[in-house]
Design goal:
mainly alpha, Cytochrome Bc1 Complex, Chain D, domain 2, 2 domains, two-stranded antiparallel ribbon, 2 strands
Length: about 230
């Protein structure tokens, strides 16, 4: 490798390091509980925020102030150092080329007990091993029985403090479930799980509850591909 090529590589590595550091900072904070790069969780996607502020000379300062002050459902971060807020703002503004999650997803056909079929956008059962559920669905069952059953009852059948989730999820898309679970419904006494459960955790709970709503998963511990 000649000197010129080596210098280019060193400069590229030096430029990449700050972005990597900011990504680590974001992951270590509570940002990822409400935001993702290419799709909405509770708050808007980073890519959408970047496009919203595009062309504004003071975009980094405005976004840094928004991170500090919060508002509109966003938690304020007044204790975060200004330099960190600015670094995060600049990183968000660099995400202009991120897609907004509109790609066509694969669908899976499952047959219900009455003989009818429904389409799901995720696999309910391990391939070739039905009725054994996937690792994601089983993890959702474990999480549900650790955190959700106290209000929503055993097997998602409803309880004194929360409704029957089998009925609630029947007309609810995954994104709606994710937003409600992360943000909570404080007026109804439901806590928000953002900052405690990850986005994947909540999606796994959704998959389990969806299986219960369609009567594809029996009461109790479902058979798993991990068994």
């Amino acid at each position: 490798m000649n000197l010129k090529t080596r210098l280019v590589c060193l400069l590229a590595a030096a430029a990449a390091a700050p972005a990597q550091d900011v990504e680590k900072l974001i992951k270590a904070s509570d940002c990822s509980s409400c935001h993702a790069v290419d799709h909405q969780v509770v708050g808007p996607a980073y890519g959408d925020m970047a496009r919203r502020y595009a062309g504004q000379a003071d975009a980094a300062a405005k976004l840094s102030a928004k991170i500090r002050d919060g508002g509109g459902g966003m938690t304020p971060h007044a204790d975060m150092p200004e330099a960190q807020r600015t670094d995060i703002a600049k990183w968000i503004l660099s995400q202009t080329q991120s897609p907004t999650g509109q790609t066509q997803s694969k669908t899976y056909t499952v047959t219900l007990k009455d003989g009818t079929s429904v389409q799901l956008d995720f696999p309910m059962f391990a391939e070739g091993k039905a009725p054994k559920v996937t690792k994601d669905v089983f993890h959702g069952y474990q999480l549900y029985n650790s955190y959700c059953y106290r209000c929503h009852g055993t097997d998602a059948t409803g309880g004194q403090l929360g409704p029957d989730l089998r009925r609630s999820v029947a007309g609810m898309k995954q994104q709606q479930f994710l937003s409600v679970a992360m943000e909570g419904r404080k007026e109804q006494g439901m806590p928000g799980w953002a900052g405690f459960l990850s986005e994947d955790d909540v999606i796994h709970v959704y998959k389990y509850v969806k299986g219960r709503s369609l009567d594809l998963i029996p009461s109790g511990r479902p058979p798993s591909e991990q068994d």
